[in-house]
Amino acid sequence: MKVNNRLFLSILGSISTIAIIGFLFLSYIKLDEPLFFEQYYEQQVTVLSDGDLDSHGGEFELKYLTNAFEDKTVIHVEFPEEPDLAFQASEYPFGISPNSTPTPEETKGPYSVRTVYVQPLELFGAEQFDQTTLTQVKLFFSDNSSMTVDIGEVNFYTVSPDQLDTEPLNFFSSTSTSEGDTSHFYEVKSEVTLTGIHSEHLDKYADWINFKINDQPLETWIGKTFQSGETISGSSEMVENYNRDTLDRFTEIKIRPELTLTDAEGQQHTSRTFEIEDREAFTFFNLLEYVKARGAL
Q1: What percent of the chain has pLDDT over 90?
Q2: Taking the domains of the chain in order of start, what are their residue ranges?
Q3: CATH of domain 30-159
Q4: pTM listed for this prediction
C-alpha cells in the first residue's frame, strides 16, 4: 500500500509540475496587445461610369495576431494620413451578419490570426483615392479601446470604365500553385510596344520573387513589339532557398506592376497586370518566432 501511495504521489507531483510549467509558458508567450502584420498592397479602386466609387472593388484586408479567444474585435478604422477618406471596417466579411457566426479567425495554439476587412466609402470623391498611400491606421475595438499602428504601405490607384475598355490587353486566364507561384495570361488586342514597367514595390521584393513576362525577366522585354492576337503571360515565382528574415516572411504582398504600352500611332496606354501575392503560412511555431522578432516577449 505504501508503494502504491508513493507511486500515486510521484505521478501527481509530475502532473502538477507539468501543469505549472505549461501555465508559466502560456503566461510568458501571451500577448500584451495585438500585433499587426505589415502589408504592401497596390490596391485598385474602380470609378463607376457615373463618377462614383465602386467601394466593393476597393476592399482590402489587414491581418493581426492576438491571443486565442480574445473577445474584443475591430469595429472601425481611421487613417491619420488621410483623415478625409472614409472607410468601414469589420472582422466579418461584408455581407455576413456578426450575429450569425463566431468571429472568423485562424487559431494556432494560444494565438489567433484575425482579418480586418476594410472598404472605402464614397463620400468625398473617388479622385481622392488616386495615388494615395496609407502607412498607418488607427483601430477602434469593441471594448472602446483604440491603438495606432504601422501597416506597411497601401498604395491606391483608380481605374475608370473607359480605361478598362481601351486597355490594349485582354485578360483571359490565370493559374497559381501552393508554393506562391502565379501565372496570368493576356491577349493583345492591337499592336503595341512595351515601353515601361513600374511598380511601387517591384524592386523591394526582387531578391525573393522572380517576375517574368513570357518566362523571361521583365527588363528583357522593354522595347518589344507585340502583335494583335499574341498572348502575353505574366508570372511570378518564389526564389528557392532564399533566406528571408522572419519579419519579411510574414509581410503580406499584393502588388500589380503597371505596364506602359505604346500603340502603332504613338499613343501611350497603361495596364496593370497580374497580381503578385506572397505571405508565410501560419503555424504556432513560426508565429512564436514572429512574436519574438517583434520584441513582444
Answers
A1: 20
A2: 30-159, 167-243+256-277
A3: 2.60.40
A4: 0.81
